[in-house]
Amino acid sequence: MAHKYSLAHLTVLGWSPVEMAYNAALIGYDYISIRNINMGVKGERDFSIPIGGERYKALKEAIDETGIAIHDIELARVVDGVDVKSYEQAFESGASLGAKGVISSVWTNNKDYYTEQFAALCDLAAQYGLKVNLEFVTWASVWNLDGALELLNTVKRPNARLMVDTLHTWRSKVSVAELAACPKELFDMAHICDGPAEIPARDDKEALIYTGRDARYYVGEGAINIADMVKAMRPDTVLSIELPHLARVEKYGYTEHARRCLATAKEYLKNNGAE
């Protein structure tokens, strides 16, 4: 079974969701993964899409014209001071445009709080038919596979899934065997990219964040065993290419960078028996 590919917003953060839809369709992606939840991060634009607004109408038109679909929306963080109910408008508009899931991650060390909030997040998403893909991020509070599985096993929500990012998986030293041991029904989507062999210390957040947000490698270019990670998941797992690289965007422009992301991923996975 050939994998379906999505273009993650962080790869082309200067594009609006409308630009993503038109350009991703031309390049050959199957889906787009949009960041329609504004996190207030420096340098990021507000891509919220209220139902009925001009952004919503333009994105719906782009989807209808191109046939491309939204696979997932992000990022529904579980973090101190943010009630997950505040994400409802984003869930409603995303689902009405065809999104299948939402990405979440945990950014507070208060275990009781994040367990309660993640359960509530799953329940809210379920009202809109959305799966919740829990991502472990190496500079977040739930930062490895064990922590993510513990949370999923605690809340036991039928729409909760495990989302593997190949960079974070490599940097949290998760083995392919550990991934293969996970229940296959937990996999719905994954973020793929490559990265350097060196793994920064967990307390070196600056180094972890730099690669994660500014300098990920094309698939097959670095040290990560992406092919075996992909083989450990369900064969129909959607592969969302999250590959921000500021220097390459400066060199090639967003369109060529996004094209190279897809072309290198397909070539690598085919050559390594994972496609």
Automatic annotation (TrEMBL):
Domain Xylose isomerase-like TIM barrel: start-end pairs: 24-245
InterPro entries linked: IolE/XylAMocC-like, Xyl_isomerase-like_sf, Xyl_isomerase-like_TIM-brl
Domain of life where this protein originates: Bacteria
GO molecular function per UniProt: endonuclease activity
Keywords in alphabetical order: Endonuclease, Hydrolase, Nuclease
Cited PANTHER family: BLL3656 PROTEIN, HYDROXYPYRUVATE ISOMERASE
Name of the protein: AP endonuclease
Species this chain originates from: Cloacibacillus porcorum
